[in-house]
Amino acid sequence: MPDLDDYAHEDRTMNIQNTPTIRQADASDAESLAKLINLAGEGIPNWLWTRACVEGQTPLEIGVERAKRTSGGFSYTNALVADPFGYPIGMVLSYAITEAPAENPDDLPAPIAPFVALEKLSLNTWFINALAVFEEGQNQGLGSQLMAAAEDQAWANGFAKMSLQVYAQNASAVRLYQRLGYVHVASEPVRLHPSPPYYTGDVLLLMKTLNSNVA
């Protein structure tokens, strides 16, 4: 006899594919946002949050606090979520970069240094900081839907150029972004990766120019 979970999975897949799912995040989504940005960041956010913990705090609690902020790049105000079942299963975090980071990458923790170096080249673009989908929503088009929503948001805010960063070794993500029209414009070597899968190689900066069909 087929497992009933197979039918449940089919029903949920149909709902994801056929139902509009993208909405603006709110503060109540903070825990999901923290987990999703850690997924997108390949464990580096958790590593950074661990360094900020005081006694009795968990890294996730730090992440939730930061997601609840109304300022800064990692804020629920900058996030769109895929929410087909009444809770977020995917996120895109994006915003305008109108000032280049002032920090010297050499003065920053090694895992984030290449990202800050590349961000300096993203001035006057709409920046995709993070894209992630929990396992239950993967391979169902949500990543592409979230990217399209972020591009609509960029166009609505007067930006015609998108930028994002991705590990060169993350071949599936690179393929997705290339399929969506993003092209490689610069690279920085990975200096340290504290979490599995222990990336080496380069971080890539990809960009895309939007056309008037967006939005």
Describe this structure in words.
A 7-stranded mixed β-sheet has the order 1-2-3-4-5-7-6, with helices on both faces. The relative contact order is 0.15. It starts with a helix and ends in a 6-residue tail after the last strand. With 215 residues, it is an alpha+beta fold. Helix 2 packs across helix 4. Helix 6 links the parallel strand 4 and strand 5. The protein is globular and about 50 Å long. The chain contains 7 helices and 7 strands.
Helix fraction? 25-40%
Strand content: 15-25%
Which class best fits the helix and strand makeup? alpha+beta
**Order of strands, widest sheet:** 1-2-3-4-5-7-6
Q: Distance between the terminal alpha carbons, to the nearest Å? A: 47 Å
Number of helices: 7
**What's the oligomerization state?**
single chain
The biggest beta sheet, please? 7 strands, mixed
Give the overall shape: globular
Element-by-element helix/strand order: HEHHHEEHEHEHEE
Number of strands: 7
Mean pLDDT: 89
Unreliable runs: 1-14
Rounded to the nearest angstrom, the radius of gyration is 17 Å
Main traits of this protein?
215 residues; alpha+beta; 7 helices; 21% strand
